[in-house]
Design brief:
single chain; alpha/beta; binds pyridoxal-5'-phosphate
Amino acid sequence: MEQNKQDYQLETLAVRAGQERSQFNEHAEAMFLTSSYVFDSAAQAAARFSGEEVGNVYSRFTNPTVAAFQERLAVMEGAEACVATASGMSAILSALMALCSAGDHVVASAGLFGATQQLLGTIMPRFGVQASFVAATKVGDWEAAIRPETKLFFLETPSNPLTEIADIAALAKVAHARGILLVVDNCFCTPILQRPLELGADLVVHSATKFLDGQGRVLGGAVCGAKKLTEEVLKFLRTAGPTLSAFNAWVLLKGLETLKIRLEAESAGALQLARWLEAHPKVARVYYPGLESHPQYELAKRQQKSGGAIVAFEVEGGRENAWKVIDSCRLFSITANLGDTKSTLTHPASTTHGRITPEQRATAGITDGLLRIAVGLEAVVDLQNDLNIGLSLI
Ligand SMILES: Cc1ncc(COP(=O)(O)O)c(C=O)c1O
């Protein structure tokens, strides 16, 4: 793109930003499937290795296809820089390893994705980084959990799977007043629906595996924010190695191109489905930020462009009935992924959140009767008919 990136709308950036054509002048982005790069001379190799000369050395550090994805996502998030990683979890791990040292403390929302909870609750403490978990929605609880050694606030909003909305701007204010950094997992909204950096977050992390790819093809992750922070992330990444592959970066570039139209259609479908579920006699409760009944509906309206594509709902009768609904479906995919064009249906208590303790699940509000839908691009009426098979058996 030749003009200043700020002159363009998000959907234009999603299609155009980050591409640098090679000498072949290809129209689509080139895929650089190479592990290393050739130097003109021994002196150039030395200069590249020392950092004296800017340029590619080895694809664990830099790759032109990965760089194109990083640049595109950075401008979409309104970030100065982005570092891509092999998966969402490696993005979160890299951010924590880059910013925290032994003795530091993290305050995190209790309703985090299960693996993130495991990482913060059981793995990081082995390296001297402790975490406290608080209710995402209670700003006062975050403030009360701060210790002198608190380095980071970490949150997901909307949370997975209960779609709780944390007030990013309010939490950024609390964090910054105490010199603490705010990291937001923007996986559910993506920059199409929510731009946390504009609301005061210091870093955004992504599981690009989800909506950014959007078609269930590859794993990927990203950390976006100010260069002085992403450079720390890159230092960890280039040494430790959870780097995004060029092939996956290419797939993700193509995913970004259709992100807006997919997410808008999926969000519209999710709202329609959530309203239908809310009126269904066999459904005890629906969690969707676009419903007026959602406890943070007003905040969601301010902070997000729409409710997003994730809907959670509860049936009476615990796991037996929840599994009955799942096992009766013929259309929904029973799979752990979300953000796909194919709608997915999950029982969080026995899958994504199955490795955390029953007490942690109870604190996070994940009951045995809870089901999570990630709405794809099928006709909503077909999804309703599919769910009705199992719901009518309860
Ligand atoms: C909110 C959220 N963050 C992070 C992750 C981890 O991403 P990945 O599976 O790409 O490692 C997930 C995965 O489901 C997620 O839902």
